[in-house]
Structures are given as structure tokens and as C-alpha cells.
Amino acid sequence: MSSTQIPNDDRARVAAALSGVLADTFLLYVKVHGFHWNARGPRFRMLHLMFEDQYNELWSALDPIAERIRALGQPAPGTLQAYAALSSLPETAGMPSASEMIQAALSGHEHVARRAAEALRVAEAAQDVVTADVLTERIGSHEKTAWMLRALLEDGEATA
User: Fold this and answer.
1) What is the pLDDT of residue 5?
2) Residue 122, Cβ neighbours under 10 Å: how many?
3) Where are the alpha helices (H) located in the chain, listed in sequence order?
4) What residues contact 135, with CB distance under 8 A and at least 6 apart?
5) Which residues contact residue 148 at a Cβ distance below 8 angstroms, ignoring those fewer than 6 apart?
6) For residue 145, how far is the Cα from the chain centroid?
7) How far, in Å, CA of 51 to CA of 38, rounded?
8) Could you give the CA distance from residue 27 to residue 61 in angstroms, rounded to a whole number?
9) Most buried in the list 98, 109, 143, 160, measured by CB within 10 Å?
10) Is the pTM of this model over 0.70?
11) What is the homologous superfamily of the domain 8-153 according to CATH?
């Protein structure tokens, strides 16, 4: 049961798009949390704290996305198996260097921003302004973080 006035078929399409965003957000959370744990080198403290800020923000983003899926009357995915099936975020293999961590985080945030933009188009087509609001906020957050990561790469130290 849903508390929205959006037709059932549209709710299912929007929830499916949101489920992909949820999966990618969760896997990006796991990725940057791992970077936080494994940061090393002369900029260790800065990277450790930066990745902590990112994973905390990503963790906070999960509930609003999942709860919107539930408000649309659909089950929110909540298992690693479901996230793996729904996500299109590539893994980062091995033990990346600091510059590779920064680049992978940048690519991840850009990827999730694109995925959220795709879901936004689905929400807008369904005239689902609440979901559009959730997604607009997510896009803004990912774009801001991507900008900051790109700026870090421009300093000449992070690039190999």
C-alpha cells in the first residue's frame, strides 16, 4: 500500500530506479569506507578524514532513499546480494594508492550522480515531486563531492 497519488505502474518504475540508486549509494559507501581504513602516505590524515566525511554522508543518504521506495509501496532492497544485482558501480580491485583512491571515489560519485539523474527523469515523468526532491539533493551532494575530489587531483600531488 502506498500513501501517494501516483499510479501503481509509475510507482513501480520510480521505485525500481531508486533501488538502483540505493544499491550504488551503498556500494560507494562501502568503497570509501574501505579507503578511509586503508589510506596511507604523506597525506594520510587528510585522506582518512575526507573519506570519513564521505562515508558518513553516504550512510545518511541511504535511509531517505530506502524510505521513499517504501512510501511508493515497494520493498526496499536490503541485502548484499540485492545490491550486487542492482548496482552498476564498478569495484576497485586490490589495494589502490592514495591517488587511485581519490580517482576511484571521484568516478564513484560521478557515477552515482548520473544514476540519480536517470532516476530523476523517471520520477519527473511520473510527476513524483517528492522523489524528484530526494534525487535532486543526492545529485547536488555527489556533484559537490566530485568537484572537491577533482580539485584535489589538480594539486599535482595526487596524480601519478
Assistant:
1) 82
2) 20
3) 8-38, 44-71, 80-86, 98-125, 129-153
4) 18, 21, 116, 117, 119, 120, 123
5) none
6) 11
7) 10
8) 12
9) 109
10) yes
11) Ferritin, core subunit, four-helix bundle (1.20.1260.10)
Grid cell digits, residue 17:
530506479
Q: Given this model, what pLDDT does residue 159 score? A: 44
Q: In the structure grid, which three cell numbers stand for residue 130, read together? A: 517528492
DSSP one-letter string for 75-117: PPP-SHHHHHHH--PPP--S---HHHHHHHHHHHHHHHHHHHH
Measured in whole angstroms, the distance separating CA 121 from the mean position of its chain's CA atoms is 17
Q: Which residue has the cell 568516478?
A: 107
Q: Once rounded to an integer, what is the mean pLDDT over residues 124-143?
A: 98
How many angstroms separate the CA atoms of 27 and 2, rounded?
A: 27
The C-alpha cell at 46 is 587528510
What's the CA gap between 66 and 75, in Å, rounded?
Answer: 9
Give yes or no for a contact between 31 and 108, defined as CB atoms under 8 angstroms apart.
Answer: yes
Per-residue model confidence as pLDDT tens digits over 17-68: 999 999 999 999 999 999 999 999 999 999 999 999 999 999 999 999 999 9
